[in-house]
Amino acid sequence: MMVNLTFIREMIQRFQEDEVSRLSAELAYFFLLSLFPFLIFLLTLLAYLPIPHEDVLSVVRQYAPKEAMDLIEANVHYIMNHQNGKLLSLGIIGAVWSASNGIAAIVRALNRAYDVEESRSFIVARGMAILLTLGMMVVIVVALLLPVFGKEIGLFLSSVLGVSEAFLTLWNTLRWTVSSLILFIVFTSLYYFAPNKRMHCKDVLVGALFATIGWIVTSLAFSYYVASFASYTSMYGSLGGIIILMVWFYLSGMIIVLGGELNAIFACEREGRKRER
Q1: Is 52 within a domain?
Q2: Of the candidates 160, 165, 168, 206, which has an alpha carbon nearest to the alpha carbon of residue 187?
Q3: What is the pTM of this model?
Q4: Which residues contact 253 (CB under 8 A, 6 or more apart)?
Q5: Cβ partners under 8 Å of residue 82, min gap 6
Q6: pLDDT in tens, 91-118
Q7: With the C-alpha atoms ordered 178, 41, 76, 229, is the resulting torsion angle positive or negative?
């Protein structure tokens, strides 16, 4: 019990000292900047694949609050109706640069959690942020497409092999589990490569697991809260969707930073040192 109280006090103290709230707001800003360039890239790319963009949006719709999703879908439909050949290249450039700023902010937050200074040059740090961004974009695309492909594979097995309804239910559960696993891989890679500190993969698993479960639970809980209790539209009018989207990004950023802080606490315990106050 004493250990648990000590751990909680450490997390609260780190939350205050490392300005987790401010860093989360910074991440929310960069997430918003990179969202629509990424959508331009993703949905223009999907035009060359036999996958309806509505199927991909249905994956996001599971977690995003309704008002935020309405805003995203409105922009998606506008993008799909006004796309041209240049959007793919412009989208990837805009998404990579905007998202790399977000990764750079995460790097600063994780360095602060581990009490290390950024000794890498600007070119190296920015290059790493861009490479992490590209890798995460690929993984996110795969995570979005896997449920879509999984649905088609399940229907194929059902028609060809005549499998039961119970199998299709199990199959649907498994393909959503794969998406969660990919999300876990994203967080593990982020916590492993981003800090300016030599890490072992096992050292970041706890924070990655926390971030994966925390992000899913927080997103679903926030969506339920907005749908059942909050009334941002009546308070902010047409800006309600943007406010909800920013709050969702803010909570997502906080989960990511807290996962890094969690890894840093365990790192201090392994190294047998206490953090300097």
Answers
A1: yes
A2: 206
A3: 0.77
A4: 23, 24, 25, 26, 27, 28, 31
A5: none
A6: 567 667 777 787 888 888 888 888 888 8
A7: positive
